[in-house]
Amino acid sequence: MSAPALPAFWAMRRGLYAIVANDRDSCREKLQEFAEEKRQSVRLHNNTYPMRLVMRWPFNVVVCASGGGGNFQALIDKRGEVGYEIVLLIADRPCGAVDRAAKHGIPFVVLDAAAPREQRMEAFDKAIPADADLIVLAGFMPIVPAWICEKWPRKIINTHPSLLPKYGGKGMVGVRVQEAVMRAGEREAGCTVHYVSPEIDAGEIILQKSIEVDYSETPWQLGGRVFIEENKLLVEAVRQIKAENGRNDGV
After folding, report:
1. Of the candidates 76, 97, 94, which has an alpha carbon nearest to the alpha carbon of residue 85?
2. Rounded to the nearest 10 degrees, how much is the dihedral formed by the CA atoms of 82, 201, 244, 188?
3. Of the four, 40, 70, 89, 151, which is 20 to 30 A from 184 by CA?
4. In the 8-state DSSP scheme, what is residue 66?
5. Is 160 known to be catalytic?
6. Are 59 and 241 in contact (CB under 8 A)?
7. Residues 65-83 pLDDT 10s
8. Mean pLDDT, range 45-74, rounded to an integer
């Protein structure tokens, strides 16, 4: 059962009333009003329990992509299990991720690729909802400028197909990463989810996953195995961040 817009539904179990709504300020106001009217004990199964009120709201995720949307699809598939809402896709070009958003009824914005970079980043910033809890760069090619990183501290995360700090930075994208890994004779490859900072691939690491390098494979094949782990790791990072920033306000 999903919660409608305010007025939301009320649920009661052992004296616990819960309100679920999308508008946090309105929800808090309604909750205060309800508490004033109903502050009392409630009787249930011949026992009396003190009433407790809890407010909950969705964990809103904005996803940004430039390609086929494999990472994006992984996030779509796990949103119900983990308990977040994908409220918007931002793409910097027409791409497969946009098709996935349309298929799943997720709102999307496509930036004007012909516009100057500064203008595109301003449009990117304006597209992000004010109540976004997390912005996920899932194969998003443009470099996010410092002023946006500063506006959303510890709210923007990125996934990268290497065990950072190795094989990160400018130009380390796609198969180039695994080519570099194999040229160096590394025993392990892997992926990283990290917070975005003004420096490319230099933000605080959230999670990493390593796999063994098989030198009978091509860099493309190694990259395919890394990508499978990347999809899983990204979902786990969102789960972890959501838990760290859980919303459960009482009155």
Report:
1. 76
2. 70
3. 70
4. S
5. yes
6. no
7. 999 999 999 999 999 999 9
8. 76
Residue 151 near residue 122 (C-beta atoms within 8 A): no
Instruction: Name the residue with tokens 């086929």.
Output: 68
Q: Give pLDDT tens digits for 29-48.
A: 665 665 555 544 444 444 44
Strands 188-195 and 205-212: antiparallel
- For tokens 């994006």, the residue is 72
DSSP secondary structure code for residue 132 in this structure:
-
Q: Please give the structure tokens belonging to residue 228.
A: 């499978």
Q: Which amino acid is at 49?
A: Y
Q: Give me the residues paired with residue 190 across strands.
A: 210
Beta carbons of 39 and 50 less than 8 angstroms apart:
no
Provide the token pair at 174: 């796609």
What pLDDT is recorded for position 40?
Answer: 46
**Coil, helix or strand at residue 228:** helix
Q: Which position has the token pair 């390098």? A: 213
Q: How far apart are CA 180 and CA 183, in angstroms?
A: 5
Q: At what angle do helices 175-183 and 219-244 cross, to 10 degrees?
A: 110
Q: Measuring CA to CA, which residue among 28, 153, 134 is closest to residue 82?
A: 134
